[in-house]
Amino acid sequence: MPYNKPSYTDKRIIVSAGFDPLVQPTVACGALAPLPLPALELDFIDRAFARTFTWKVEPVFTDSFSIEGQEPRDVKAAAVFFPLIQRSDGLHVLFTRRATHLSNHAGQISFPGGRIEASDQDAVAAALRETQEEIGVGPEFVRLIGAQPSFLTSTRFAMKPIIGELRPGFVLRPDASEVAEVFEVPLSFLMDTSKHRLHMVQLPSGNSRYYFSITWESYFIWGATAALIRNFYHYLAAAYVDARD
């Protein structure tokens, strides 16, 4: 590992959504077929993004994944980097735990990323810039693979995920003002949909809100980050079926 994993003693996340996401009831979301091991390999993912095939986004969030091509005035464009790392036991995905003093999503698990600034050429440039600013990994250590549909968050960010590989030799230098911790999760665990839980919360307005969550060790991954992980499963599943046809 290129870094020393800090200790993590606080298993509760900072809640800024008006409810505690850890304790909300779960609802059935249907069993999904497990991905075969070849679909979790870097070569397969590279080939999938190099071709065109038909696939559908997570049905629970069809509307949230339909933001591209629209330009609502109240939506802020953002980009995140979905970092894949080749390890001896397979691909891993890198996450950050946000600093607890931040105004948005404090303490939550996320991908490196943030708002697309006027100085950014596009979503890719923003994701790379934010990755370097947050965890100290420069673009020379990033091999771009592709992009996924943007996701409209509850805080009105249109979050564009950029998929890429972190090349060997990178060194993490997290910015303590933004990042409390950096850690990895095996892709095989994240793509196991038996580990995905769908929650429903009743809001004071009377409306309902749904969100996915995934628990890895002491880390509770939920909200937009979990939705992007769930969507990545749908993409790889469709790519595998298409490759066999």
Describe this structure in words.
The protein is of the alpha+beta class and 245 residues long. The chain has one domain: Nucleoside Triphosphate Pyrophosphohydrolase (Alpha-Beta Complex), CATH 3.90.79. Helix content is 19%, strand content 30%. Strands 2, 3, 4, 5, 6, 7, 8 and 9 form an eight-stranded mixed beta sheet that branches. A four-stranded antiparallel beta sheet has the order 1-10-11-12. The longest helix has 22 residues, at 223-244. It is globular, with a radius of gyration of 17 Å.
Blueprint of the fold:
Layout: E1 26-27, H1 42-49, E2 76-87, E3 90-98, E4 109-110, E5 113-115, H2 123-135, E6 142-147, E7 151-152, E8 157-166, E9 179-186, H3 187-190, E10 197-202, E11 208-216, E12 219-222, H4 223-244
Parallel strand pairs: 2-8
Antiparallel strand pairs: 1-10, 2-3, 2-5, 3-4, 3-9, 6-8, 7-8, 10-11, 11-12
Name the beta content range: 25-35%
Task: Estimate the mean pLDDT confidence.
Answer: 89
CATH names the topology as: Nucleoside Triphosphate Pyrophosphohydrolase
- Give the count of structural domains: 1
Q: Please identify, by name, the CATH architecture.
A: Alpha-Beta Complex
Let me know the largest β-sheet.
8 strands, mixed
The succession of helices and strands, N to C, reads EHEEEEHEEEEHEEEH
- CATH-level-4 superfamily name: Nucleoside Triphosphate Pyrophosphohydrolase
How far is it from the N-terminal to the C-terminal residue, by CA? 38 Å
Helix % is 10-25%
Tell me the number of strands: 12
Structural class: alpha+beta
Number of helices: 4
Name the overall outline.
globular
